[in-house]
Amino acid sequence: MPTALLFRDDAYLTETTATVEAVNERGGIILDRTVLYATGGGQPGDAGTLRRADGSMISIGTAIYDPEDKSRVIHVPLEGQASPQPGETVTVLLDWDRRLKRMRIHTALHLLSVVLSYPVTGGAIGDGDGRLDFDIPEGGLDKAEIAEKLNALVARNADVTESWITDAELDANPGLVKTMSVKPPRGSGRVRLVAIGDIDLQPCGGTHVRNTAEIGLVAVTDIEKKGKQNRRVRIALV
Ligand SMILES: [Zn+2]
Hints:
Blueprint: E1 4-5, H1 6-9, E2 15-23, E3 29-31, E4 33-34, E5 48-51, E6 57-66, E7 69-77, E8 89-94, H2 96-115, E9 120-125, E10 129-135, H3 143-154, E11 160-166, H4 167-171, E12 190-196, E13 200-203, E14 218-225, E15 230-237
Parallel strand pairs: 1-4
Antiparallel strand pairs: 2-3, 2-8, 3-7, 5-6, 5-8, 6-7, 9-10, 10-15, 11-12, 12-13, 14-15
Zinc ion (ZN) is lined by residues 106, 110, 194, 204, 206, 208.
Protein backbone atom coordinates (compact mmCIF):
# COMPACT_ATOMS: atom_id res chain seq x y z
CA MET A 1 0.00 0.00 0.00
CA PRO A 2 1.34 3.47 -0.82
CA THR A 3 1.86 5.75 2.18
CA ALA A 4 -0.67 8.64 2.17
CA LEU A 5 1.48 11.81 2.10
CA LEU A 6 -0.59 14.10 4.29
CA PHE A 7 2.12 16.82 4.26
CA ARG A 8 1.48 17.28 0.56
CA ASP A 9 -2.14 18.34 1.06
CA ASP A 10 -1.53 20.26 4.29
CA ALA A 11 2.02 21.28 5.24
CA TYR A 12 0.70 22.63 8.55
CA LEU A 13 -0.58 19.25 9.78
CA THR A 14 1.61 18.34 12.76
CA GLU A 15 0.13 15.00 13.78
CA THR A 16 -1.95 12.07 12.60
CA THR A 17 -2.87 8.61 13.75
CA ALA A 18 -1.47 5.88 11.50
CA THR A 19 -1.24 2.13 11.22
CA VAL A 20 2.10 0.32 11.10
CA GLU A 21 2.19 -1.58 7.80
CA ALA A 22 5.62 -3.13 8.17
CA VAL A 23 9.01 -2.87 9.88
CA ASN A 24 11.89 -3.65 7.54
CA GLU A 25 15.04 -5.63 8.38
CA ARG A 26 16.91 -2.44 9.30
CA GLY A 27 14.19 -1.29 11.69
CA GLY A 28 12.63 1.22 9.26
CA ILE A 29 8.94 1.73 9.99
CA ILE A 30 6.39 1.90 7.15
CA LEU A 31 3.05 3.52 7.99
CA ASP A 32 -0.19 3.79 5.99
CA ARG A 33 -0.01 7.61 6.28
CA THR A 34 2.36 10.24 7.57
CA VAL A 35 2.86 13.94 8.31
CA LEU A 36 6.67 13.60 8.04
CA TYR A 37 8.07 14.96 4.77
CA ALA A 38 10.29 12.35 3.13
CA THR A 39 13.70 13.44 1.80
CA GLY A 40 13.43 14.82 -1.71
CA GLY A 41 13.86 17.89 -3.89
CA GLY A 42 16.80 19.10 -1.79
CA GLN A 43 14.74 19.13 1.39
CA PRO A 44 15.72 16.74 4.20
CA GLY A 45 13.21 14.31 5.67
CA ASP A 46 11.46 15.40 8.84
CA ALA A 47 12.28 14.28 12.34
CA GLY A 48 9.44 13.40 14.69
CA THR A 49 8.05 10.94 17.17
CA LEU A 50 5.72 7.95 17.07
CA ARG A 51 3.54 7.73 20.19
CA ARG A 52 2.31 4.23 20.92
CA ALA A 53 -0.99 3.30 22.57
CA ASP A 54 0.77 2.78 25.93
CA GLY A 55 2.17 6.34 25.76
CA SER A 56 5.76 5.29 25.04
CA MET A 57 7.64 7.14 22.31
CA ILE A 58 9.75 6.09 19.33
CA SER A 59 12.06 8.88 18.13
CA ILE A 60 12.27 9.19 14.34
CA GLY A 61 15.45 10.74 12.93
CA THR A 62 14.27 11.17 9.36
CA ALA A 63 11.84 9.96 6.71
CA ILE A 64 12.85 8.63 3.29
CA TYR A 65 11.14 7.00 0.33
CA ASP A 66 11.58 3.23 0.28
CA PRO A 67 14.18 2.54 -2.46
CA GLU A 68 12.35 -0.73 -3.22
CA ASP A 69 8.92 0.90 -3.51
CA LYS A 70 9.04 4.66 -3.87
CA SER A 71 5.34 5.00 -3.04
CA ARG A 72 6.11 4.09 0.57
CA VAL A 73 7.74 6.24 3.24
CA ILE A 74 10.21 4.66 5.68
CA HIS A 75 10.39 6.31 9.10
CA VAL A 76 13.98 5.81 10.26
CA PRO A 77 14.17 5.53 14.05
CA LEU A 78 17.12 6.84 16.06
CA GLU A 79 19.37 4.15 17.46
CA GLY A 80 18.12 2.07 20.38
CA GLN A 81 14.41 2.76 19.87
CA ALA A 82 11.72 0.14 20.42
CA SER A 83 10.17 -1.42 17.34
CA PRO A 84 6.38 -1.34 16.82
CA GLN A 85 4.34 -4.31 15.61
CA PRO A 86 2.67 -4.44 12.18
CA GLY A 87 -1.01 -3.56 12.62
CA GLU A 88 -0.29 -1.35 15.62
CA THR A 89 -1.90 2.12 15.74
CA VAL A 90 0.50 4.99 16.49
CA THR A 91 0.29 8.78 16.56
CA VAL A 92 2.83 10.48 14.29
CA LEU A 93 4.10 13.76 15.76
CA LEU A 94 6.10 16.15 13.56
CA ASP A 95 9.12 18.14 14.81
CA TRP A 96 7.33 21.32 13.79
CA ASP A 97 9.95 23.92 14.79
CA ARG A 98 12.49 22.41 12.43
CA ARG A 99 9.95 21.87 9.64
CA LEU A 100 8.67 25.46 9.80
CA LYS A 101 12.23 26.79 9.33
CA ARG A 102 12.62 24.52 6.31
CA MET A 103 9.27 25.71 4.91
CA ARG A 104 10.32 29.35 5.31
CA ILE A 105 13.66 28.73 3.59
CA HIS A 106 12.11 26.57 0.89
CA THR A 107 9.58 29.28 0.03
CA ALA A 108 12.34 31.91 0.10
CA LEU A 109 14.32 29.82 -2.42
CA HIS A 110 11.36 30.00 -4.81
CA LEU A 111 11.61 33.79 -4.51
CA LEU A 112 15.39 33.68 -4.99
CA SER A 113 14.83 31.90 -8.31
CA VAL A 114 12.69 34.90 -9.30
CA VAL A 115 15.31 37.47 -8.22
CA LEU A 116 17.98 35.52 -10.13
CA SER A 117 16.09 34.29 -13.18
CA TYR A 118 18.83 31.95 -14.39
CA PRO A 119 18.59 28.17 -14.83
CA VAL A 120 18.81 26.40 -11.46
CA THR A 121 21.17 23.42 -11.43
CA GLY A 122 20.78 22.34 -7.81
CA GLY A 123 19.67 23.30 -4.37
CA ALA A 124 19.49 22.29 -0.74
CA ILE A 125 17.44 23.24 2.29
CA GLY A 126 18.77 23.24 5.83
CA ASP A 127 17.41 24.32 9.19
CA GLY A 128 17.19 28.06 8.72
CA ASP A 129 19.43 28.26 5.69
CA GLY A 130 19.57 27.00 2.15
CA ARG A 131 21.13 27.44 -1.26
CA LEU A 132 20.48 27.38 -4.97
CA ASP A 133 23.07 26.80 -7.69
CA PHE A 134 22.62 28.85 -10.83
CA ASP A 135 23.95 28.61 -14.31
CA ILE A 136 25.16 32.21 -14.65
CA PRO A 137 27.41 33.24 -17.51
CA GLU A 138 28.75 36.42 -15.87
CA GLY A 139 29.88 37.17 -12.32
CA GLY A 140 29.28 40.44 -10.53
CA LEU A 141 26.48 39.30 -8.26
CA ASP A 142 25.98 41.57 -5.28
CA LYS A 143 24.84 40.04 -1.98
CA ALA A 144 23.20 43.22 -0.66
CA GLU A 145 21.34 43.85 -3.91
CA ILE A 146 20.01 40.29 -4.09
CA ALA A 147 18.96 40.44 -0.42
CA GLU A 148 17.13 43.72 -0.98
CA LYS A 149 15.17 42.32 -3.93
CA LEU A 150 14.44 39.09 -2.07
CA ASN A 151 13.13 40.91 1.00
CA ALA A 152 11.01 43.17 -1.20
CA LEU A 153 9.28 40.04 -2.57
CA VAL A 154 8.84 38.66 0.97
CA ALA A 155 7.27 41.97 1.99
CA ARG A 156 4.59 41.68 -0.70
CA ASN A 157 2.70 39.31 1.64
CA ALA A 158 1.83 37.08 -1.28
CA ASP A 159 -0.31 33.98 -0.75
CA VAL A 160 1.28 30.65 -1.62
CA THR A 161 -1.20 28.27 -3.25
CA GLU A 162 -0.98 24.77 -4.65
CA SER A 163 -2.88 23.08 -7.46
CA TRP A 164 -2.54 19.91 -9.51
CA ILE A 165 -2.28 19.53 -13.28
CA THR A 166 -1.87 16.43 -15.40
CA ASP A 167 1.49 15.39 -16.90
CA ALA A 168 -0.02 16.05 -20.34
CA GLU A 169 -0.95 19.63 -19.38
CA LEU A 170 2.57 20.17 -18.02
CA ASP A 171 4.17 18.79 -21.18
CA ALA A 172 2.13 21.33 -23.13
CA ASN A 173 3.69 24.11 -20.97
CA PRO A 174 7.42 23.22 -20.76
CA GLY A 175 8.29 26.75 -19.60
CA LEU A 176 6.83 25.88 -16.20
CA VAL A 177 9.74 23.62 -15.38
CA LYS A 178 12.37 26.10 -14.25
CA THR A 179 14.82 23.81 -12.55
CA MET A 180 17.26 21.63 -14.41
CA SER A 181 18.40 19.13 -11.80
CA VAL A 182 15.61 19.36 -9.24
CA LYS A 183 12.80 17.89 -11.26
CA PRO A 184 9.19 17.90 -10.07
CA PRO A 185 7.71 14.54 -9.12
CA ARG A 186 6.55 12.94 -12.37
CA GLY A 187 5.08 9.70 -13.54
CA SER A 188 2.04 9.56 -11.29
CA GLY A 189 0.00 11.22 -14.06
CA ARG A 190 -0.22 14.57 -12.30
CA VAL A 191 2.10 17.27 -11.02
CA ARG A 192 1.68 19.77 -8.23
CA LEU A 193 2.06 23.44 -9.14
CA VAL A 194 3.02 26.00 -6.52
CA ALA A 195 2.08 29.63 -7.11
CA ILE A 196 3.38 32.57 -5.07
CA GLY A 197 0.87 35.31 -5.84
CA ASP A 198 1.66 36.48 -9.36
CA ILE A 199 5.40 36.35 -8.52
CA ASP A 200 6.24 32.73 -9.25
CA LEU A 201 4.69 29.53 -10.58
CA GLN A 202 6.52 26.23 -10.74
CA PRO A 203 6.07 22.52 -10.16
CA CYS A 204 7.17 21.48 -6.68
CA GLY A 205 6.43 18.66 -4.28
CA GLY A 206 7.89 20.35 -1.22
CA THR A 207 6.41 22.12 1.80
CA HIS A 208 5.77 25.88 1.76
CA VAL A 209 4.46 28.57 4.09
CA ARG A 210 0.99 29.94 3.30
CA ASN A 211 2.10 33.53 2.81
CA THR A 212 5.49 35.09 2.10
CA ALA A 213 5.08 37.23 5.25
CA GLU A 214 5.84 34.08 7.26
CA ILE A 215 9.33 33.89 5.75
CA GLY A 216 10.49 37.01 7.60
CA LEU A 217 13.76 38.79 6.88
CA VAL A 218 16.28 36.86 4.80
CA ALA A 219 20.01 37.45 4.39
CA VAL A 220 22.24 36.46 1.47
CA THR A 221 25.17 34.94 3.33
CA ASP A 222 27.46 33.78 0.56
CA ILE A 223 27.97 33.68 -3.19
CA GLU A 224 30.39 31.00 -4.21
CA LYS A 225 31.86 30.25 -7.61
CA LYS A 226 31.35 26.59 -8.47
CA GLY A 227 32.96 26.23 -11.86
CA LYS A 228 33.05 28.56 -14.83
CA GLN A 229 29.31 29.10 -15.22
CA ASN A 230 28.03 28.16 -11.81
CA ARG A 231 27.26 30.34 -8.80
CA ARG A 232 26.08 28.96 -5.47
CA VAL A 233 23.95 31.50 -3.60
CA ARG A 234 23.32 30.88 0.09
CA ILE A 235 20.56 32.48 2.11
CA ALA A 236 19.58 32.34 5.78
CA LEU A 237 16.71 33.40 8.00
CA VAL A 238 17.71 36.47 10.02
ZN1 LIG B 1 8.76 24.34 -3.45
